[in-house]
Design goal:
The N and C termini lie far apart (39 Å). A five-stranded mixed beta sheet has the order 5-4-3-8-9. It is built from five helices and nine strands. Strand 1 and strand 2 form a beta hairpin. It is α/β, with parallel strands linked by helices. The protein has one domain: Glutaredoxin (3-Layer(aba) Sandwich).
Length: 164
């Protein structure tokens, strides 16, 4: 399966959030959407990443952006995860990996004598037209949410310049 690239139309999807409500990407056309993928929701990196996005959620809101996390965990597990950090954004369950395969295909790593398949940490910034504006793959968790926020500010500024 080919990786998504900057400029590609972001594949639409419908997943359940932590409250078992539908989340459909195309419902947010006209907004900046941050979609980030993690393999499991209760590992230290996932907790740090979600906490960092949550700390900045009002700044994302002020830029007309929404943040959504995606994992292979169940809806119930995601609810427990979100409650643990009191997150103010949606966390989606892709337990069958149908959307993850489109956005962030699993990679195989050799660990000692075993092959382990996992989802690499990946974040997509989707612009108001529904196209992939920027991609972060295998990023460092520390400072990532701030980098995403900064990129949205830059892209919003540039899009205003091209309109003038």
């Amino acid at each position: 399966m080919q990786k998504l690239l900057v400029g590609d139309k972001a594949p639409d999807f419908l997943l359940r959030d932590q409250n078992n409500n539908d989340f459909k990407l195309s419902d947010f056309k006209g907004k900046w959407v941050v979609v980030y993928f993690v393999s499991k929701n209760f590992n230290p990196n996932s907790l740090k990443l979600a906490s960092d996005f949550n700390k900045l959620i009002k700044k994302f809101d002020s830029l007309g952006a929404i943040v959504v996390g995606v994992s292979n965990s169940s809806v119930d597990s995601n609810l427990n995860f979100i409650n643990k950090i009191n997150a103010q954004f949606s966390f989606l369950s892709d337990s069958e990996s149908s959307i993850t395969k489109l956005y962030s295909p699993k990679v195989t790593k050799q660990v000692l004598d075993r092959e382990i398949r996992s989802i690499p940490r990946t974040t997509y910034l989707i612009n108001p037209n529904g196209n992939v504006e920027f991609i972060w793959r295998n990023f460092e968790v520390l400072g990532h949410a701030e980098k995403v926020l900064k990129k949205i500010s830059e892209r919003r500024f540039l899009s205003r310049l091209t309109v003038l």
